[in-house]
């Protein structure tokens, strides 16, 4: 009697085949402007019980486990690639969007769910919390693959926000589940305002403190290990991933935000040991893509399209409210006081991509035993599908349309169209500049051009910012150390 290896080969054949088909289809779909992530999700659906594949998969526990681990790896990879320099322009707006923005967006979306799905307020707000945050996996991958070069302010805000808003979404989801369970039990809710505040401070405090401490410690360890033969990029990437998952699990077990901790850890390591981390980024990219592929395929397998149709139209209505009302209003409330330009606010509003995070969060109510939890999962899936299909496929077009892109430095004609034909030193005094070009002299003639531009912008300058002076347009052309170095001028 021979040993049968079907228990190994058949699942492996199915899993490897699905990944292969997804990647192959993704290569062709990317050329048409569609997201790789969308392809992974759709392949999972087609392989499921209602699709041609016919695979019956309803293991929410496994999907929950894989989803959380995958998100931790993706956030670590994103943190390792986040430069401290981007915090100059992106940290303050990102913090506002990741906290106040998520709450406002969740509240407005919850109101739509209350009306469209006829849910009680606790359950409707739970829907809003599940879909209220942008997704790091979607934002990181789609911004990289879009082929456009965004100005630093917009790119930094989007990337840092997507890395920081998951903890708030997880916190809101767990809070709403606690309230919903208390209401369903017929008793008063034990989640009072002080308990909410205490839980918030505990999660964010532990997450930030332990993540930063782990980051400094890991950076020093990498420096001591140096660049020996045993510390190559692949081995170092494996070391980083295992350390990141250890921190994620440990902080979560202690009651903190593991997502915030692993992202903060990645940022510190990536900046404190940049030379050592750089050789590992290629391997880290592979880990991140494998995490995204596995996560989206599993989440796609969980979906049953025939059940999805039961709430399709209300879910599409919630998607439209989220994309066209809730996200734009929350972004405007956060960024308008910080003097973001209208086109920047519009683009950041549109690129509020939803990906795996809402679907993973939609598993939380299923695990908690909330009545009708499958509805939240179906709604989250439709929201993600609509976001990847409409927003994800139009990133490049909307960026160019709204004028938040920078020219290719090697394209001289395009550079001249954006910055003008002449280049000025930022140390030029305004009286000399205005006398030479016949422009009106500002209030302080002895002021340098760089200082004048910074004051007129009323915000940290980035390459691409422009200010009108008489018949001329002056544009920031080069920065160094947070200071303007070169300025382009267009006349007439």
TrEMBL record:
> Where primarily located?
membrane
Q: Which residues cross the membrane?
A: 12-42, 62-82, 94-117, 123-143, 168-188, 286-306, 312-335, 347-370, 376-397
Subcellular locations according to the entry:
Cell membrane
The residue ranges of the Transporter-associated domain are 415-492
Report the InterPro entries cross-referenced here.
Cation/H_exchanger_TM, FAD-bd_PCMH-like_sf, FAD-bd_PCMH_sub2, Na+/solute_symporter_sf, Transptr-assoc_dom
Question: Per its UniProt record, what Gene3D superfamilies does this chain match?
Answer: 1.20.1530.20, 3.30.465.10
Q: Which UniProt keywords apply?
A: Antiport, Cell membrane, Ion transport, Membrane, Transmembrane, Transmembrane helix, Transport
Name the domain of life this protein comes from: Bacteria
Stated membrane topology is: Multi-pass membrane protein
Q: What's the name of the protein?
A: Potassium/proton antiporter
């Amino acid at each position: 009697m021979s040993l049968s290896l079907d228990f190994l080969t058949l699942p492996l054949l199915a899993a490897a085949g699905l990944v292969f088909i997804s990647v192959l289809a993704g290569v062709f779909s990317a050329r048409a402007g569609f997201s790789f992530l969308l392809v992974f999700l759709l392949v999972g659906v087609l392989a499921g019980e209602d699709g041609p594949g016919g695979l019956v998969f309803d293991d929410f526990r496994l999907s929950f486990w894989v989803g959380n681990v995958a998100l931790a790896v993706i956030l670590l990879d994103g943190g390792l690639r986040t430069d401290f320099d981007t915090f100059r322009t992106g940290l303050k707006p990102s913090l506002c969007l990741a906290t106040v923005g998520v709450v406002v967006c969740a509240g407005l979306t919850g109101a739509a769910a209350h009306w469209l799905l006829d849910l009680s307020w606790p359950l409707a707000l739970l829907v809003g919390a599940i879909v209220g945050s942008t997704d790091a996996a979607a934002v990181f991958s789609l911004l990289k693959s879009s082929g456009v070069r965004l100005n630093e302010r917009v790119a930094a805000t989007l990337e840092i926000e997507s890395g920081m808003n998951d903890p708030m979404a997880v916190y809101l989801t767990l809070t709403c589940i606690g309230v919903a369970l208390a209401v369903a039990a017929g008793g008063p809710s034990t989640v009072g305002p002080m308990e909410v505040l205490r839980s918030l401070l505990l999660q964010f405090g532990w997450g930030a403190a332990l993540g930063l401490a782990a980051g400094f410690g890991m950076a020093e360890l990498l420096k001591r290990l140096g660049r020996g033969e045993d510390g190559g990029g692949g081995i170092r990437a494996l070391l980083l991933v295992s350390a990141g998952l250890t921190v994620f699990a440990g902080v979560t077990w202690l009651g903190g935000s593991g997502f915030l901790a692993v992202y903060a850890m990645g940022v510190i390591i990536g900046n404190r040991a940049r030379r050592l981390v750089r050789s590992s980024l290629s391997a880290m990219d592979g880990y991140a893509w494998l995490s995204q592929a596995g996560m989206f395929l599993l989440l796609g397998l969980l979906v049953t399209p025939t059940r999805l149709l039961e709430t399709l139209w209300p879910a599409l209505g919630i998607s439209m409210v989220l994309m066209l009302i809730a996200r734009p209003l929350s972004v405007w409330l956060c960024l308008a006081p910080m003097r973001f330009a209208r086109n920047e606010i519009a683009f950041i509003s549109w690129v509020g991509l939803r990906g795996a995070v809402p679907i993973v969060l939609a598993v939380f109510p299923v695990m908690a035993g909330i009545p009708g939890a499958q509805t939240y999962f179906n709604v989250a899936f439709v929201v993600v599908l609509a976001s990847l299909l409409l927003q994800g496929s139009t990133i490049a077009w909307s960026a160019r349309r709204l004028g938040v892109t920078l020219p290719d430095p090697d394209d001289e004609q395009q550079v001249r169209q954006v910055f003008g034909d002449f280049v000025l030193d930022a140390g030029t005094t305004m009286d000399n500049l205005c006398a030479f070009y016949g422009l009106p002299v500002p209030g302080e003639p002895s002021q340098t051009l760089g200082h004048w531009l910074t004051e007129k912008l009323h915000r940290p300058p980035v390459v691409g910012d422009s200010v009108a002076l008489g018949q001329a347009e002056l544009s920031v052309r080069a920065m160094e150390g947070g200071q303007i170095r070169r300025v382009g001028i267009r006349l007439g």
